[in-house]
Automatic annotation (TrEMBL):
Subunit structure, as described in the record: Associates with the 50S ribosomal subunit.
Record-annotated EngA-type G domain positions: 3-163
Species name: Thalassobaculum litoreum DSM 18839
Annotated keywords: GTP-binding, Nucleotide-binding, Repeat, Ribosome biogenesis
GO BP term, example: ribosome biogenesis
Binding sites annotated in the UniProt record for GTP 1: 9-16, 56-60, 119-122
Protein name: GTPase Der
Function as written in the Swiss-Prot or TrEMBL entry: GTPase that plays an essential role in the late steps of ribosome biogenesis.
Range covered out of full length: 1 to 163 of 479
Keyword Lipid metabolism: no
Family per record: Belongs to the TRAFAC class TrmE-Era-EngA-EngB-Septin-like GTPase superfamily. EngA (Der) GTPase family.
Key word Nucleotide-binding present: yes
């Protein structure tokens, strides 16, 4: 069975952009509207010679009820529980938000390995957000640009180490 990697994080940080890059899907379900990916998507991911399963999620929202946010949160929890490795993505240009910190608290108690991906780090716009991401307490964040394909070598090493 292939290693399964789940990408989680609040809406609009770039999860689907990374999923599309790793699966070779060019256009599906990337949108400027937060929360556009309503359902979990799973596909075959690849970086160079490395093959794995990859799961895209709708985005973490904090809600206890049956609202859309509540359903999105539960399907994120299900994705984490089924994963061998979790990429928690933040938007380094936006910095660490209270919602990011809240879910990092939850992830620290989950028994699945987690790597924080600081996305949108192309150019210099993500530097402050990247250093903030150390405060999430989930190890060294990895700067990437899902849109520009930067940092894929680091993702290769992280996934490779778990196989
Ligand atoms: P999701 O809601 O987390 O799945 O986020 P999406 O993948 O739908 O992307 C949300 C927005 O962020 C879109 O406008 C993307 O084009 C943009 N985006 C994604 N990755 C990057 C990146 O590496 N750099 C920049 N500057 N924008 C990005
Ligand atoms: Mg999405």
């Amino acid at each position: 069975m292939a290693l399964k990697v789940a990408i989680i994080g609040r809406p609009n940080v770039g999860k689907s952009t990374l999923f599309n890059r790793l699966t070779g899907t060019k256009h599906a379900l990337v949108d400027d509207t937060p929360g556009v990916t309503r359902d979990r998507r799973e596909g075959d991911g690849r970086i160079a010679d490395l093959n794995f399963r990859i799961v895209d999620t709708a985005g973490l929202e904090d809600a206890q009820d049956d609202s859309l946010e509540g359903r999105m949160r539960r399907q994120t929890e299900a994705a984490v529980q089924q994963a061998d490795l979790v990429f928690m993505m933040i938007d380094a240009r936006a910095g660490v938000t209270p919602l990011d910190a809240h879910f990092a608290d939850w992830l620290r108690r989950v028994k699945v390995p987690v790597t924080v991906l600081a996305n949108k780090c192309e150019g210099r716009g993500g530097i402050a957000g990247l250093s903030e991401a150390y405060k999430l307490g989930l190890g060294d964040p990895v700067p990437i640009s899902a849109e520009h394909g930067e940092g894929m070598g680091e993702l290769y090493d992280i996934i490779r180490a778990r196989i």
